[in-house]
Amino acid sequence: MFDFATLILHSGFPVVESGVKATFGAKMKSHLAQLVKSFALETRADNDLIRLSSGRLSRYYIDGKRLSLHSETMHECVQCLSQLIMDGCSDGIVVDAIGGPCIGSDAMVGALLYHWGGSRHIFRGFLVRKEEKKHGKPERVIGTVKPGDNCVLIEDVVTTGRSSLDAIRQVQAFGAKVHRVVCLMDREEGADELLANEGIDLKAALTMKDLGLPPDVGARNA
């Protein structure tokens, strides 16, 4: 069987170095925040709240796909995420693979692998399906990741962290290790604590505060 996922989920060049310094700073954060507010932030009236993946209702919706499926915003997303991932390398952990849950991270994972394709940093890539397929290869973890790999999970927006943890469990069952979750946006609704309890670090390019919005504002349980 021709496995197209194996072909595209690989950056293709050696070698990951430790000691790489991250340069994700205030200027990059400010620019990304402006893009999020311009492209991805949707504000609802109190009588028209939107249901989040966590099941909660909120006035504020951040559509990560509007960031990852536009050339201008995707370029900035890749710059920010790559620096946060490199920060993981500077912690002394050699990152072997990056990936994330379908479909929120698909475009970003592909773009990051392409971004590193001509560099000295090699990364394998993977995606985590929400459920097994009923045809072809049924596995939930697909791509070039190998058992024993040190991995970074990529997300667009995290809320409670439960969906990230589900993907992490699948990667662990596959035999790889997730040391860090890197996301564009943390809604600050418990993901950092949930992941910390599992020994996993969460690094977010932005939080609600960076958009001038306090966490949980307008949000309530359904």
Walk me through this protein's architecture:
- By secondary structure, this protein is an alpha/beta fold.
- It has one domain (4-211): Rossmann fold (3-Layer(aba) Sandwich), CATH 3.40.50.2020.
- 33% of the residues lie in helices and 22% in strands.
- A six-stranded mixed sheet has the order 7-6-5-8-9-10, with helices on both faces.
**Rounded average pLDDT:** 84
Rg result: 17 Å
| CATH architecture assignment name | 3-Layer(aba) Sandwich
CATH class: Alpha Beta
- Topology order in helix (H) and strand (E) letters: HHEEEEHHEHEEEHEHE
Major pleated sheet = 6 strands, mixed
Span from first to last CA? 45 Å
Number of strands: 10
Strand order of the largest sheet: 7-6-5-8-9-10
The general outline is: globular
Q: Residue share in helices?
A: 25-40%
CATH topology: Rossmann fold
Q: Count the helices. How many?
A: 7
Taken as a percent bin, the fraction of beta residues is 15-25%
Main attributes?
33% helix; single chain; globular; 10 strands; 7 helices; Rossmann fold; disordered N terminus; two-stranded antiparallel sheet; alpha/beta; 222 residues
Task: Give the helix/strand layout.
Layout: H1 4-8, H2 26-40, E1 41-43, E2 50-51, E3 57-58, E4 60-62, H3 65-68, H4 71-90, E5 97-101, H5 106-115, E6 124-128, E7 141-143, E8 150-158, H6 162-174, E9 177-186, H7 191-196, E10 201-207
Parallel strand pairs: 5-6, 5-8, 8-9, 9-10
Antiparallel strand pairs: 1-4, 2-3, 6-7
Helix pairs in contact: 2-4, 4-5
